[in-house]
């Protein structure tokens, strides 16, 4: 491996030095306290890896505010304590039981490549994702139950519907974790489902009473 | 589940509207292109969920630049295509084979709760993490091989050494993925290992020639 | 001093720009009138500096509604026109004689660090607050008469009782100001005593007939 | 006193119930934690009592973010540990030594009645403020040194100049407190001077290098 590790590209080095001389310097006192006393984030946010989803910017959040897990298509698997390593479940467990976050937010988004891939796979257009060796395909299997909910819709609306249904499915899966359920039922945490439209900058939230996502 | 989903707290709603009216509006043309033409991130970054690791800020990165996967302790498991869902492996596969990122960056950090938990577990001080039902414990098992590398060091230096060794282990594990190896050997991608010190704002990178992390 | 003044942290700068582009823009016409014609607040509120007491939010108050004085433990000293500077007395005088507010509200709260400190001081557990150089201790001396009223209560109830008695003492002290007394007796102003419970979101008001604080 | 305390006006009662049913409910989990674990505000803000200065709104701040002291004309007196009660000095001491805030912000504003009164007093137009019994006059004496700095300016610019000079004087006075000086020199806190224009919604910050307030 060693021969393949390279110095950081200079454009990132320069930007880091710029951050250090400005933002870091302005906030040094607070960042030191965060280091010394530990984090106390108010919310956990589960978002997609997609480079266009700029979570902290959208919510004006600085260091220390959001415990952030990001995976492809912002999915949460169902509770399954089989002893294997489950990165998402571990992050949720840590946020709820150790950090005791007050809000658990699942943030979906438009033009999601993962959701698109799942839709292609479920409609038979992506056999490569159905190969056992495809990590992406195996991961997106978590979204298959959501596809079942949208497959009767008009075809041109299915992708966006699947992006939103995926958020709902993740919220449902969150409730299968005993510690999540306990935190919510005791009033120590609330659940939130969001969908962000990249191009328009829109933000919709899931309204469980209507079953729809509504513009914030 | 439905009765447990709540409206987004109003402080986030107003901050979102502020972002929409300023940052979004200033960048609308570009964000629309990102939506229409898809993302084309230059780098993938694998960082910790910790709320104090503000990846985009440190590198002055705007929407579209970083494909970001964040999990507890910024770990990458070894290649293991067993058909189960592996969020980290899926994210790496997507970044390398679909997005063809040019840089793959693993970013560790100081005061990492996950690393601290692994150290406690490996030294027998965290039996609760060794329970089969602990997702955090199962996840941190990925870091055990790194602990083996640092356990002979002076005790007071082990935690920081483990934070850094974890980055190296993740880089090594990345090389076990055939598509990562292929991308690197063909010159299409480079690997980078970083460690960020929260309190001082420092950033060190792994130098494979000396085996040490060096201030950037 | 000059070398110690720094630029505002960027997270506050971006949030300010967000406010300017949304809340300010929506309310510009009114804010301009408030600037041109002066404030005409209906009430003065005397509250604690505590960051958890979000006065405007609790009462849905917008710009121009509350003349707000905030000090440690929401205390009002007795009338003492000795020519020295007294920030609280000055604020009360200005509100009553210049602004002619219709309501004068003292708002106490639970988990008050100042009240806790006074209790510790009065029970001999905080000698550092009794040092002549402690501004906090000297300030909290204003609350000693209230301690005298609660010191015979069961120990575990004394802190909350002192938080509430402090509100009553401040109301009593307000009545020692001739201009306050005159405004009230002429029917131009009314007095109100409140206590806010941070965790439950509760709000109680002092009922002088029963001598108790009662849930609103 | 008792016969003068009245029930809270119903418009405030209704708004409180509205807040309790909405904002409180959305944020209950976090507010409970703030109650149980205590506040950890990042900044102290010293602002004017003026009802048009809506500090939390301008900065998108929710409960727990700002330790807020508000007095007439946002003044800080010089260090003077004479054993008397000094509300501002006590608030500063508590913020710096107990809460260890990272930022100390003095926020002045346009159309400040206190500054206007001081200017009138200093130019001989407000004899009533020079009476020994005037708390407002005695308080505004703290601003006299600032008047000395602006009295040679063209008359029509003196008021705004005095509003800004008052912020600088308060920053200077803050540096006379040994614990403030120590916190700043050790890098644990930074000072910030702001001036807010009510009508235009503008925000300027003091730049010690130019000596001027500059639009943010």
From TrEMBL, chains A, B, C, D:
InterPro entries tied to this protein: Beta_CA_cladeB (IPR045066), Carbonic_anhydrase (IPR001765), Carbonic_anhydrase_CS (IPR015892), Carbonic_anhydrase_sf (IPR036874)
Cofactor note: Binds 1 zinc ion per subunit.
Domain of life: Bacteria
Family: Belongs to the beta-class carbonic anhydrase family.
Pfam families with a match to the protein in the record: Pro_CA
Residues at which Zn(2+) binds: 48, 50, 109, 112
Name of this chain's protein: Carbonic anhydrase
EC code(s) of this entry: 4.2.1.1
Catalysed transformations (reactions): hydrogencarbonate + H(+) = CO2 + H2O
Segments passing through the bilayer: none
Keyword vocabulary terms for this entry: Lyase, Metal-binding, Zinc
GO terms of biological process kind: carbon utilization
Record's function text: Reversible hydration of carbon dioxide.
Cited SMART domains: Pro_CA
Any GO molecular function: zinc ion binding
Keyword Lyase (UniProt): yes
Known cofactor(s): Zn(2+)
